[in-house]
Amino acid sequence: MTDTTHAWGRPPSGRFNAVAAKFRPVFAEIRAGAAKRDHQRELPFDAVAALRQAGFSKLRLPVENGGLGLTLPELFGLVIELGEADPNLANIFRAHHGFVEDLLNTGAEHRGWRDAWLERVGKGETIGSGFSETGNNTLGSHSTQIIREGDIWRLEGKKFYTTGSLYSDWIHIAAIDGDGTVVGALVPTKAAGVEIVDDWDGFGQALTASGTARFTQVVLQPDFIKPNALRFNYAAGYFQLIHLATLAGIGRAAADDLAALVASRTRVYGRGNGQQSAQDPQVLQVVGRVRAAAYAAGAIALKAAEALQEAYEANLSGNEARIALAIRDSDLDVSQAVTPVTSLILDATTGLFDALGASATKRSQSLDRHWRNARTISSHNPRIYHDRLIGDFAVNGAVPDGIGGVGTLTSTPATKTEDA
């Protein structure tokens, strides 16, 4: 039988398959338990530990720091494969990979701080997210406070959408100081006064622990405070592309599940076109459309990753004109990818049921999880705004501003940050 498992087009680099071979057995084990975990709401602590053990938290980390030194297209290629295994895991590591990208873009003036955190990541420590808040906080600001008291800082407040933090050693947060200035910090998840609650009740991505984190008089040391609260300058596109790569992975999983079910199906409809579903051209057409959608989504995501790689390399060059163009183009490339990838995967994860019978809707099959996960991921940063940004650029030459996050809008946002 032809091996279709990884026939998803050319890899992002000549070495990619050799690198991916280290992780694929872990991905396969994760995938084998994904439906059961989703059905029973079983948090994937073991899967997270296995990925950490394999080095998935060190993909972009320089080789001299114990990492693999991957390019961004290579990183996103692996995110697609992890999303195929279990999209919850791809999202759990989203904030961690983003923090590593922060470190890789930290300037020489903060090299000591950067190197200390590269060392921590090199030892296997991981970082979750703590940016978003519920309530009426102003867009670009925070109700969570971090106040300096002599040689220490004290943190007080509450966050939501703390994706990955329950599984991590640190929470990457943003808060305001006594003057109302936004401050970035790393909070130890085991510190006194830190409480992480698994109260995320979304119908998809249910195992990411994207719930509440409470901070009650948490003491932070000076080296836990970031030199600059701003994220790296291509963060908006980067964090969005993690979602698109995860969607592409969901599409692959849905395509593979559908093909396997059609191949094994013995019952046929009276109006069908073959003795078995596997011989029915209309059923095969559905399978082909779903697989083609997954292929296209992955190809689009990896192409957008090339633009992010150019943004990273432009930063290293120090050429301001090159940097500005690369950041603009990376934002546009990702925004132009959002609606096509989203539509492809939402349509595919709905349409796959056209090739199957009513038995495919049984909870035990868990095929609905593909759509539920895709719909949840694609709801984070609505595609309607990406469409508008693209149109505004095409018609008026307007450049995306890179502002992320959610909140009330009572004034101009204070900073450009990402809710990751």
> In sequence order, what are the helices and strands, one letter per element?
HHHHHHHHEEEEEEEHHHHH
Supply the number of structural domains.
Answer: 3
The CATH homologous superfamily of the largest domain is named Butyryl-CoA Dehydrogenase, subunit A, domain 3
Strand order of the largest sheet: 2-3-7-6
Sheet with the most strands, sense and barrel status: 4 strands, antiparallel
Structure class: alpha+beta
Low-confidence stretches: 412-420
In whole angstroms, how far apart are the ends? Answer: 42 Å
GO molecular function: acyl-CoA dehydrogenase activity; flavin adenine dinucleotide binding; oxidoreductase activity, acting on paired donors, with incorporation or reduction of molecular oxygen, reduced flavin or flavoprotein as one donor, and incorporation of one atom of oxygen
Protein name: Monooxygenase
Keywords: Monooxygenase, Oxidoreductase
Domain Acyl-CoA dehydrogenase/oxidase N-terminal: 28-125
